[in-house]
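Encode chain A's predicted structure.
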Amino acid sequence: SSARIERYLQLCAENNMTVARPSTPASYFHLLRRQAYQRPRRPLIVFTPKAMLRLRGATSEIADFTSGKFEPVIDDATITDKSAVKRVVLHAGKLHYDLLAERDKREQKDVALVRVEQYYPLPLRELASVLSQYPNAELLWAQEEPENQGAWPFICLELARNYKERSISVASRPSSASPATGSTKRSAKEQVELIEKALTL
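Encoded structure for chain A:
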């Protein structure tokens, strides 16, 4: 849940942990592989929703497992002209596939979808390297959780503290005391709205 994510991020800062939210099987594999070889050892917390087990888009080629390494930030490989991008949507996990499907439906070429596979420690160097390729784009963080929960409070503070060159906004569900709406219809409506906000310039 979003409350658990927020709490884990707080604990990580106190206990030198790693928190990740991989979006593909290969990313998860390389994350675990890195963990096995990492010295000194540090606790690893991974968020992987069950819904991704059934997502056709959330698959990896065999070559993705046999080569490469864990990438804490995954750039948008579909963008050819990065100078034409007007918005970079930073996000993580399952939401990527919802954003990708809607963007492809709209045939948008001016929005880049950049995945943050590791929350903590926030990969600032990798983020700066990717974002420098989009000099004309505004930055936005998208998440399924309410605005006052999930990773956004942490991401917002960390980027404001360490990446002062550019501001960042958010597309999320409205702030709430509860991580869930309690209504399937309302939850679906809010999901559509946050995706609309993330992709509409």
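Residues 90 and 141 are 5 Å apart (CA to CA).
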